[in-house]
Design goal:
- This protein has 7 helices and 10 strands.
- By secondary structure, it is an alpha/beta fold.
- The protein has one domain: Aldolase class I (TIM Barrel).
- The strands form 2 sheets. Strands 4-3-10-9-8-7-6-5 form an 8-stranded mixed beta sheet.
- The longest helix has 18 residues.
- It starts with a strand and ends in a 5-residue tail after the last helix.
Length: 228
């Protein structure tokens, strides 16, 4: 993930979802970049600024070498906002924890396709959809796109990672891969009527600090982006 820091100290992790059907970008700031000592204020600020979703990055210290937070925090966030909560499970045994995040108030849950995630991808995706949530699948930069193709008729979102999950402020070294996979997503959508293709986009802190400091202006700029 890539953390963006605003002029007034608020950090925003930009996760952009491009919806082929809706023809627009959905901006989902991640609370991983927030100041947890005033989490409510941070959420209300990005919500008032026009954020479409709130993204929750869940790390277990096993699938990725970092630990973030669990369903209790997601539940507290749910109590602070009516904006849809998008949960990305960077964890092992996602099938075991999915019910807890559903109970906490997740509107969409994305799980990893890699064998190291140690779960049945088909069963976990069905578990998410049976609960009425959007089901997402994601792959790390080094993972072949072929690994997700068997599941494309079972998902609502595909998260294309352009940095290895687990840490913020990484530089995007996979731009060409992102473009290639976006083309694959678009082609598959036309054939199978998939809803959306989603990926991480990176811009440097330096570039952001030169831009308008107001969060609303920044989110409006992100929303104007289009897949190229």
């Amino acid at each position: 993930m890539v953390c963006w820091s605003t002029m007034d100290g608020l950090a925003i992790t930009p996760l952009l979802l491009y919806s082929i059907n809706m023809g627009r970008v959905i901006v989902a700031p991640s609370i991983l970049a927030a100041d947890f000592s005033r989490l409510g204020d941070e959420i209300h600020r990005v919500e008032a600024a026009g954020a479409d979703w709130i993204h929750c990055d869940i790390m277990d210290g096993h699938f990725v070498d970092n630990i973030s937070f669990g369903p209790e925090i997601v539940g507290r966030v749910r109590g602070l906002t009516s904006v849809p909560l998008d949960v990305h499970l960077m964890i092992e045994h996602a099938d075991h924890y999915v019910p807890r995040f559903i109970k906490a108030g997740a509107n969409s849950i994305t799980v990893h396709v890699e064998p190291e995630a140690k779960h049945s991808v088909t069963k976990t995706l069905q578990q998410i959809r049976d609960a009425g949530c959007r089901a997402g699948l994601t792959l790390n930069p080094e993972t072949s796109f072929d690994s997700v193709e068997p599941f494309l008729d079972k998902i609502d979102m595909l998260l294309v990672m352009t940095v290895h999950p687990g840490f913020g402020e990484q530089q995007d070294r996979h731009r060409s891969r992102r473009r290639h996979q976006r083309r694959n997503c678009t082609d598959i959508d036309r054939k199978r009527r998939k809803r959306a293709c989603r990926g991480d986009l990176n811009f440097s802190r330096k570039r952001l600090r030169k831009s308008d400091p107001r969060i609303a202006r920044r989110i409006a700029w992100l929303s104007s982006l289009r897949s190229g």
